[in-house]
Design brief:
The chain is α/β, with parallel strands linked by helices and 338 residues long. The protein has 2 domains: 138 residues, Rossmann fold; 185 residues, Dihydrodipicolinate Reductase, domain 2 (2-Layer Sandwich), CATH 3.30.360.10. Helix content is 30%, strand content 25%. It has 8 helices and 15 strands. It is globular, with a radius of gyration of 20 Å. The two termini are 16 Å apart. The model has no long low-confidence stretch (mean pLDDT 97). Bound molecules: adenosine-2'-5'-diphosphate (A2P). Adenosine-2'-5'-diphosphate binds next to α1 and α4. The site of adenosine-2'-5'-diphosphate (A2P) has 18 residues, from α1 and α4.
Length: 338
């Protein structure tokens, strides 16, 4: 009989945790036992998994005993707090937070790009930042054909990236504004409904925010290529779920648009969405709930003969987080690394 695993989700009540539960069931991950962990606030809540109600437990060291795999999505400080205990308990941790992503001993993996990296794990594997995953899936197939020298990207990031409470806040703000009331901003720093603002992650001394620097550093690590130059402007937009990105890619020589289209139409995890007659291209509502990164509007950059422009949308909670983590877990199972 095929091996089955004891799996724990750390942050099971959050936006990504909820999706992890769905995706494990949907993809029939071989589970012997599923443990749902969160903060003490959620202890006792019951969540359905494959027709069974599972009670959420507060996270304790004891909870990891006998567990084979921990899928963590409860924020950096919670990941840092529990990582060594998870590894000491003999489990592999796939961590969705930024806590270990740039640690040279921790593989940072997008299965469509660097699946081989999982083999080097020492107990922790990091799941990249959501905008970085979506960008990487779309541009790596082109990079393999002809190395990308420089990426200029602007992101349009949904509320889901800031968690389940930010999504609720966007709905409440929208309702408040429609009723003529003043919207409250408690989760995100400013009202997002009918508004947008530069990404709320901490600003760095170089003027970039943390989210933008994650795109720079994580793309280089995943691609295994420190020479790629990347500059990003990350923006929060009043979309509930699914991020969008406007991407400019510069090569050392022209990259024919038709060649790019052909490559992306065959690329794993990518769906080409282009109807030039109808001016129909990827939109966050179409990407929501989908596994693929939707890519379209591929065109020659009229300002640079060596550059292409493209537009993409991807479900931040699925491919940008939960799905990528489960795909990493599937790789571990396939390669007997769990
Ligand atoms: P809880 O619902 O009990 O607060 P999101 O990213 O959608 O905001 O979700 C964050 C997830 O991380 C939730 O499941 C949340 O649980 C969990 N979490 C937050 N703080 C802790 C903590 N200190 N220990 C364990 N889980 C935590």
């Amino acid at each position: 009989m095929a091996k089955e695993y004891r799996v724990a989700i750390l942050g099971a009540t959050g936006a990504v945790g909820t999706e992890l539960i769905h995706i494990l069931a949907e993809r029939k991950f071989p589970i012997k036992e599923l443990k749902l962990l969160a903060s003490p606030r959620s202890a006792g809540t019951k969540i359905s998994f494959q027709g069974e109600l599972i009670e959420v437990e507060a996270t304790t060291e004891e909870a990891f005993r006998g567990i084979d795999l921990v899928l963590a999505s409860a924020g950096s400080s919670t990941s840092k707090q529990w990582a060594s205990k998870i590894v000491a308990a003999g489990a592999v941790m796939i961590d969705n937070s930024s806590a270990f992503r740039l640690n040279p001993e921790v593989p940072l993996v997008v299965p469509e790009i660097n699946p081989h990296a999982v083999a080097k794990h020492q107990g922790i594997i990091a799941n990249p930042n959501c905008t970085t995953i979506l960008l990487g899936v779309a541009i790596y197939p082109l990079h393999r054909q002809q190395p990308i020298q420089r990426v200029v990207v602007a992101t349009y990031q949904s509320a889901s990236g800031a968690g389940a409470r930010a999504m609720e806040e966007l709905k409440a703000q929208t309702e408040a504004i429609l009723k003529g009331e003043t919207p409250k901003a408690e989760v995100l720093p400013y009202p997002l409904a009918f508004n947008l603002f530069p990404h709320n992650s901490p600003l760095q001394p170089n003027g970039y925010c943390e989210e933008e620097m994650k795109m720079v550093n994580e793309t280089r690590k995943i691609f295994g290529d420190d020479s790629i130059r990347l500059t990003a402007t990350c923006v929060r937009v009043p979309v509930l779920r699914a991020h969008s990105e406007a991407v400019n890619l510069e090569f050392s020589q022209p990259f024919p648009v038709e060649k790019a289209r052909e490559i992306l139409s065959l690329a794993p995890g990518v769906k080409l969405v282009e109807d030039w007659q109808r001016n129909y291209f990827p939109m966050p509502i179409d990407a929501t709930g989908k596994d693929e990164v939707l890519v379209g509007r591929i065109r020659q950059d009229i300002s640079n003969p060596n550059a292409l422009e493209l537009w993409l949308c991807g479900d931040q909670i699925r491919k940008g987080a939960a799905l990528n983590a489960v795909q990493i877990a599937e790789l571990l199972v396939a390669e007997n690394l769990l």
